[in-house]
C-alpha cells in the first residue's frame, strides 16, 4: 500500500501505511499475541505448527481490529489527552471513517479465518472479545463508571483463554486462571498510570477512579487489588500450569509488586507531586514486566514439561 493524500470534508489527510498500523495499537497487540501463544502452548493438547501460527496471526488481527474500533470511538477524548493526542485520528493523519471501516473489516476477517484455522469455539470467543472491548468497554463502560477499567479489563484477559481453546476446543480451570491473572493485574496497572497522568482524565471527562473518588481512594484500591493479585499469582504456581520456576518467579515479583503498592498507598499526594510521581511511574513500569514475567514462566514450564523438567 502506498502513501495516500486526499481531501475530506474536514480537510486534507496525508495517510501513511504506518498510520494504519498505529490504529491497531501494536503494543497492546504484542501483549495479546504473547498471552494467547502462552495459552496455546500451555494447553495439554499439541497443535500443528502451521495451525498454531495461523491461529495466533488471526488473533493478532482481531486485536488490531479492536484497537482500530477503540481509536475510532475515543477520537474525541484522545484529542484532549496529552498521552493520546498524537494518535492517528486526533492528529489528523487518518479520517475516523477509515478507522471504523478498517476495524470492522479486520474483525470479520479475523473471526472467520480463526474459525476455519482452529475451531468455532475459539472464533466465537474472539468475536465476543472484540465486541466486549469495542462496544461494552469503549462505547459504554469507559465513559459511564469508575469501574470501567475493572470490568473492561476482561477484554484484555481473554487472549490466553482463546489460545487454550484453539488447542483443546474447550475451557478449563487453568485457562481461567490465566484470565484471572490479567484481569486482576489490569486495575492497579492502569490506576498507577492515572495517578501520574494527573489531569488527563479530568480534561477528557473520563470517570476514572482518580477523577470520581480522588487519588487517596485510588491508592487504597491499588494496594487492595495488588494483595488479591499476589495470592492469585502465587497460588497459580501450585496448579497444572505452574511449577518451581513459575513459583519462584511469582514469589519474587509479587514481593516487589506489594512493596511498590504499599509505597504508593502510604504517601500523601503532596509528596507525589513534589518528586514528580517517581514511585507511581516505577510501579507502572514494574507492572509491565510483572505480567510478561509471569506468562513467560508459564511458557517455560510448558516447554520444559515434556522433558520432565517443568511442572510438579
UniProtKB/TrEMBL annotation:
Gene3D superfamilies: UbiA prenyltransferase (1.10.357.140). Its EC number is 2.5.1.141. Pfam families: UbiA (PF01040). It is a multi-pass membrane protein. It catalyses: heme b + (2E,6E)-farnesyl diphosphate + H2O = Fe(II)-heme o + diphosphate. It is found in: Cell membrane. GO terms for biological process: heme O biosynthetic process. InterPro entries: Protohaem_IX_farnesylTrfase, UbiA_prenyltransferase, UbiA_prenylTrfase_CS, UbiA_sf. One of its GO terms (cellular component) is plasma membrane. It is an enzyme of class 2 (transferase). Pathway: Porphyrin-containing compound metabolism; heme O biosynthesis; heme O from protoheme: step 1/1. Keywords: Cell membrane, Heme biosynthesis, Membrane, Transferase, Transmembrane, Transmembrane helix. It comes from the Bacteria. PROSITE patterns: UBIA. Interacts with CtaA. Converts heme B (protoheme IX) to heme O by substitution of the vinyl group on carbon 2 of heme B porphyrin ring with a hydroxyethyl farnesyl side group. Belongs to the UbiA prenyltransferase family. Protoheme IX farnesyltransferase subfamily. This is Protoheme IX farnesyltransferase.
Amino acid at each position: 500500500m502506498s502513501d495516500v493524500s486526499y481531501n475530506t470534508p474536514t480537510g486534507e489527510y496525508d495517510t501513511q501505511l504506518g498510520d494504519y498500523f498505529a490504529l491497531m495499537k501494536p503494543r497492546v497487540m504484542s501483549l495479546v499475541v504473547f498471552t494467547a501463544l502462552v495459552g496455546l502452548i500451555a494447553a495439554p493438547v499439541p497443535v500443528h505448527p502451521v495451525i498454531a501460527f495461523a491461529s495466533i496471526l488471526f488473533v493478532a488481527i482481531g486485536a488490531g481490529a479492536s484497537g482500530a474500533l477503540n481509536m475510532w470511538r475515543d477520537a474525541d477524548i484522545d484529542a484532549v489527552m496529552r498521552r493520546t493526542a498524537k494518535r492517528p485520528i486526533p492528529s489528523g493523519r487518518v479520517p475516523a471513517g477509515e478507522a471504523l471501516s478498517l476495524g470492522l473489516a479486520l474483525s470479520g476477517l479475523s473471526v472467520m479465518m480463526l474459525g476455519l484455522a482452529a475451531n468455532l469455539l475459539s472464533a466465537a470467543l474472539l468475536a465476543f472479545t472484540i465486541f466486549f472491548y469495542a462496544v461494552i468497554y469503549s462505547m459504554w463502560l469507559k465513559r459511564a463508571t469508575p469501574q470501567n477499567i475493572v470490568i473492561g479489563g476482561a477484554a484484555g484477559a481473554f487472549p490466553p483463554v482463546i489460545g487454550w481453546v484453539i488447542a483443546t476446543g474447550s475451557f478449563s480451570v487453568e485457562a481461567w486462571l490465566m484470565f484471572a491473572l490479567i484481569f486482576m493485574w489490569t486495575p492497579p496497572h492502569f490506576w498507577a498510570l492515572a495517578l501520574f497522568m494527573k489531569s488527563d482524565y479530568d480534561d477528557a471527562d473520563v470517570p476514572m477512579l482518580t477523577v470520581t473518588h480522588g487519588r487517596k481512594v485510588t491508592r487504597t484500591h491499588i494496594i487492595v487489588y495488588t494483595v488479591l493479585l499476589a495470592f492469585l499469582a502465587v497460588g497459580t504456581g501450585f496448579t497444572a500450569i505452574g511449577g518451581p520456576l513459575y513459583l519462584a518467579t511469582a514469589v519474587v515479583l509479587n514481593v516487589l509488586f506489594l512493596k511498590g503498592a504499599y509505597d504508593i498507598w502510604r504517601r500523601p499526594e503532596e509528596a507525589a507531586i513534589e518528586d514528580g510521581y517517581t514511585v507511581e511511574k516505577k510501579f507502572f513500569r514494574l507492572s509491565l514486566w510483572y505480567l510478561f514475567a509471569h506468562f513467560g514462566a508459564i511458557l517455560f514450564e510448558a516447554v520444559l514439561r515434556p522433558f520432565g523438567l517443568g511442572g510438579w
